[in-house]
Amino acid sequence: MSVAVEQRSKIHPHKFTLWVAIGSILMMFAGLTSAYIVKRSQANWALLEIPAIFWVSTVVILVSSGSIYLAQRAFKERDMYRYRSMLGITAILGVAFLILQIIGFASYGQQEIRLVGAGSNASYSFLLAIAALHGVHVLGGVIALIIIYIRARSSKNRNYSAVPIEVASTYWHFVDFLWLYLFVFFSMMK
Hints:
mainly alpha, Four Helix Bundle (Hemerythrin (Met), subunit A), 6 helices, 77% helix
């Protein structure tokens, strides 16, 4: 086997690291949602209605999955203007998702439901902790998208490696899927 063929059959180290991280994140969220199910049998467990704005945030994150797909496709077609535009749109949609999540959780405060601290219920804190952890992962994805966007606009950096957008796209689709899982999970738990 030639060296070139052997090199093509190896996974890029960044992609391998991403898949290990995705596996770890999946295990963490599986553990948290399993703990939620187990703890739900406690006598003082309370259920919360999911705010309607979470439906909007779900649509926003699904649209962002489409925009990052279009960014990756534009990169492969070497349409750098569309690539940068779709990267920017995806990052903006990621920020919009986070803002909508914050508004959703703030609505509990308007209903005088305390999510943490005195007067709160463990079920409320569980919901907040799981959603906040997901939000941190989305924020990490937004930061990565911004860095890739800045590099794509740089006149000094003309690297045409597809690895950054492939890694970012895979991660972004993952956090989108993870939100769908969490949204369905909490909708079914009410």
